[in-house]
Amino acid sequence: MPAGIVVINVAATAMWTVGVLASIYAGSLEPDFRVTAATLSALVKGVATILLFVVIDPYLSGLTGDVVDGRASEVDFRRAIIWMVTSRLA
Questions:
Q1: Is 43 helix (H, G, I), strand (E, B) or coil?
Q2: Domain total for the chain?
Q3: Nearest one of 58, 48, 60, 53 to 84, comparing CA atoms
Q4: Does position 58 have pLDDT exceeding 90, yes or no?
Q5: What is the reported pTM?
Q6: pLDDT band per the 50, 70, 90 thresholds, residue 73
Q7: How many angstroms separate the CA atoms of 41 and 33, rounded?
Q8: Which domain covers residue 61, as residue numbers?
Q9: Coil, strand, or helix at residue 50?
Q10: Which of 35, 37, 43, 64 could be joined to 23 by an S-S link, Cβ 3.0–4.6 Å?
């Protein structure tokens, strides 16, 4: 499992998770900019979603195809899934 994929998964999941909470907190700190903060929340979540779909999903799809074709073992696939779940929890 490439370390870069794990780091990108941690970053994208973190951005996707805290997007709404950060906008609520920013709106409470600066009430005049509540609408701007709420709008930027969608932008942050959009960037995170694009990262997940452009980087993470193709890697896992390729790995799944390699396992089906016999170029990678099921043990490697399970290890990759464990890393992905662990990085999401991180």
A1: helix
A2: 1
A3: 60
A4: yes
A5: 0.82
A6: very high
A7: 12
A8: 3-89
A9: helix
A10: 37
Quick check: 15 and 45 in contact, CB under 8 A? yes
In the numeric block, which tokens belong to residue 69? 């074709």
Angle between helices 3-29 and 74-89 (to 10 degrees): 20
pLDDT of the residue at 33? 92
> Which DSSP letter does residue 70 get?
T
What does the H/E/C string look like for the chain? CCHHHHHHHHHHHHHHHHHHHHHHHHHHHCHHHHHHHHHHHHHHHHHHHHHHHHHHHHHHHHHHHHHHHCCCCHHHHHHHHHHHHHHHHC
Token digits for 87? Answer: 């990085």
Identity of residue 48: A
